[in-house]
Amino acid sequence: MSDDREDSNQTAVEMGRITKRFPGVIANQAIALDVKAGEIHALLGENGAGKTTLMNLLCGLYEPDEGEIRIFGQLMRFRSPKDAIAAGIGMVHQHFRLVESFTVAENIILGQTKGLWRDSPQRLHAHLQTLAHQYSLTLDFTARIWQLSVGEQQRVEILKALYRRARVLILDEPTAVLTPQEAQDLMATLRHLAAQGTAIIFISHKLKEVMALCDRVTVLRDGQRVGTVAVPQTTEQELAQMMVGRTIKRQRRTDPPERLPQTEPALILKQLSVMGDRQHLALRAIDLAIYPGEIVGIAGVDGNGQRELEEAIAGLRPFSQGELWRTGNLAHIPSDRYSMGLLTEFSIAENLVLRDVQHPPFQWRGLLRLAWIRKYAVDLVQRYLIRTPSVQTRAGNLSGGNAQKVVFARELTRHHQVLLAAQPTRGLDISATEFVHAQMVARRDAGTAVLLISTELEEILCLSDRIAVLYEGRIVGMMDGASADVHQLGLMMAGKTAVGHAQLADQTPSFYPAEADRRTRD
Amino acid sequence: MKNISTAWLHLLNRSRLKPLAPIAGGAIALMLGGILLHVSGANPLQAYGVMFAGAFGGTRQLTETLLKAAPLLLIGLGMTIAFRCRVWNIGAEGQYYIGALCGSAIALTYPALPSLILIPLMLAASIGGGILWSGLAGLLHLYRGVNLIISTLMLNYIGILLVQYAARVPLQQPDGFLPESAQFGDNAQIPTMLGTRLHWGFGLALLLVGAVYLLLWYTPLGFQLRAVGSRLSVAKCVGINTSRSILIALTMSGGLAGLAGILEVSYTYTRLKGDISDSYGFSGILVALLGQLHPVGVLIAAVLFSGLMVGAQSLNVVLQIPASVAQVIQALVVLLVLAGQAIARAKRDDAIPLVAHDG
């Protein structure tokens, strides 16, 4: 390995005029990409721009229709991921490929069929220790995956790739699932890896991260390469324009209409306590009231009870104590589109009527009104700007942003008084995020009580009229959205309620500088 | 690791002939079966000729095949509903027996009723029995978390033994020695239709092909059953009562299995005995899978499967080939056609799935 790493200017990956077609779309059109050893190269683009397809070609999941791939100068043809792994390509997928009940060490060696007799556990551990030490990756190899945080699981994936002698490491939106602190750790790790000669391809649509971490950026749009620029010679603004092909419209947060003094809350949580999956108290005596015409943001680091709060309000999780009052129906944008919101095997039209299919007008005398459903779906697809060839397309074929639009279209079309939106922009690109935010503000202005649960602090600051901070299952603070102080919020999210703490600077993630304009995203 | 077999699979995966893979699978099975027949001392071509003639070669043979197809079709349709909802009911055999028991109890208790009243009562009782037996597993699953595969499988044995007990003690023919009930009167025998030997149960099964198709794709209930089968967590999240859906899918398949039971007893055996099934409950599962969980596919699969069973009999009778050889051929056909279907379904460019993809 070390021979390759001595020359840091060596080209590690060279993809030339790569074209990949799928039925009805050209996912990649004559795309060129070169990544040098020791470089962190960002692949930037909106959802559906072709980033994931390009990387799936590089890691052997697909074969290109045209074009060639060279790894360290050698022409390659990958017929399966195994070929790509053998050539030194390592991929860290957004959804980890780990066996929950296995240990870290077992996951790392899983699928290694070399030799009938595996390494003895002692030798394996020693080998892993050396490897982890070399790349400063701290991990407990005897821990089981389900015991690890998301950030640690990601480290297992990275180590797994390194164990397989990866010289090119691809990370697909690695920070999407991380807390700000974990994201910082990951970035330090990646810098360390690059310094030792690994070529890193960093797929993202978060401009701040790209600017902070990467050496060069290749921007894709609509399956084509817009250009490759060196990070020091560009700005966020320029990258954003390359990505979307137009100037970004800055999100404006409008203040809510005056609340009538006599309005009753639409959603009340009274001393609500809820058990989590591991039989611990995930929510402890939550008190919360949300009024019609306001957005209440729940800020907090992931894993502090957000999931349980969402499920309790949506009626998916029983509570052990307390009460919950709600007027009218609930529209629910779930935190996990694919395990809660959409049936990937069903068509867009079917997904749009999923919740109310048993009621008129979708059925008549016990039979589905298919023509009516189709018309309804076509109408919603137009109204919510869902980009799809037809309403019969399977929802699983949609990009993340369009999939989320389907969920929004279904939920917002119901008659509802409360909107529960959990991580509504997770994994979405700029224009889809803008769309989602505009929808939420519009519902608020129309008099809906909106509860926003988000781990993206910027999103909370940008939309909320009031902000509650969730920490270890408790609401540790409540503040006005317009005058919220980022430092104080950061402290509360870290469980420190006293202002003026010495560790203030450390506790505020550097993604969110204090002077950041709260009214903008990206 | 590239070896010949994966290279071959990749080639197959890309070719335009992929949809023909199930047929190719069937052909390979027949070729392998041919070797077996040859070893058994028969001319394979002649043997297959005998099998085909025995199953489809004339009106009498075809009638026999369709008669045997009726219970397979009913059970296969039920399994289609259950499996579409991802309810793994493998207790059709037991539900079939209990359905037969309940229907027989009516026939033996009210021997004097006219056909027009007695037969509908028998059918209703058999459906009720199947619902009860499958519902038992369903309630254990929903309230106590008992695995459906295990409970439905175990209830098979309880159901079969219960019928054997009933045929030996409470329902045994009053002065008889054999473990079987008195013969049903003609009024309890399901009538034949259109001057053939085919009984109306077969006609009912044909009607149900359309009904199940309508249910699954044209009603809100079927939509919800499919949604639950597609992803339980999503169905729950959008407010579908998943417990109710599971119970409905399970009991529908149980009811249809029960119906198959009384039809067989009423027509073929005309009395309740301890042995009233040709493993229909298990074959019905295969028929549902071979038919790709589509009612029309299940109809075709049921007739073909039944044809294999009937053809095997004539193989035995005409060429004195042991029944076990025919059963091996039958199993080979099922296995390789299913494998072919899996290849046909695989998307182009999909790696041969070594690792299960989730969600």
Indicate the topology.
The complex is a heterodimer of chains A (522) and B (359).
Chain A (H helix, E strand, L loop, with lengths): L1 H5 L4 E12 L2 E12 L3 E5 L6 H8 L7 E6 L2 E3 L4 H6 L2 E4 L11 H6 L11 H14 L15 H14 L4 E5 L7 H16 L3 E6 L2 H7 L2 E6 L2 E7 L5 H9 L22 E9 L5 E10 L4 E5 L6 H8 L7 E6 L3 E4 L3 H5 L6 H5 L10 E2 L2 E2 L1 H14 L16 H14 L4 E5 L7 H16 L3 E5 L3 H7 L2 E6 L2 E7 L5 H8 L10 H4 L15
Chain B lengths: L3 H11 L6 H19 L4 H13 L2 H26 L7 H18 L5 H30 L3 H21 L31 H19 L1 H11 L1 H6 L4 H28 L10 H11 L4 H25 L3 H23 L14
Descriptive overview:
The complex is a heterodimer of chains A (522) and B (359). Chain A is of the alpha/beta class and 522 residues long. Chain A folds into 2 domains: 2-244, Rossmann fold (3-Layer(aba) Sandwich); 282-507, 3-Layer(aba) Sandwich (Rossmann fold), CATH 3.40.50.300. Chain A has helices at 2-6, 51-58, 81-86, 104-109, 121-134, 150-163, 180-195, 207-213, 236-244, 306-313, 337-341, 348-352, 370-383, 400-413, 430-445, 457-463, 486-493, 504-507, and strands spanning 11-22, 25-36, 40-44, 66-71, 74-76, 89-92, 168-172, 199-204, 216-221, 224-230, 267-275, 281-290, 295-299, 321-326, 330-333, 363-364, 367-368, 418-422, 449-453, 466-471, 474-480. In chain A, the strands form 5 sheets. Chain A has a 6-stranded mixed beta sheet with strand order 6-7-8-3-9-10, sandwiched between helices. In chain A, helix 14 packs parallel to helix 15 (430-445). Chain A is globular and about 70 Å long. Chain A starts with a helix and ends in a 15-residue tail after the last helix. Chain B is mainly α and 359 residues long. Chain B has 2 domains: 19-32 and 322-359; 43-320, ABC transporter involved in vitamin B12 uptake, BtuC (Orthogonal Bundle). Helices cover 73% and strands 0% of the residues of chain B. Chain B is built from 14 helices and no strands. In chain B, helix 8 (200-218) crosses helix 9. The interface between A and B is medium-sized, with 33 and 27 residues.
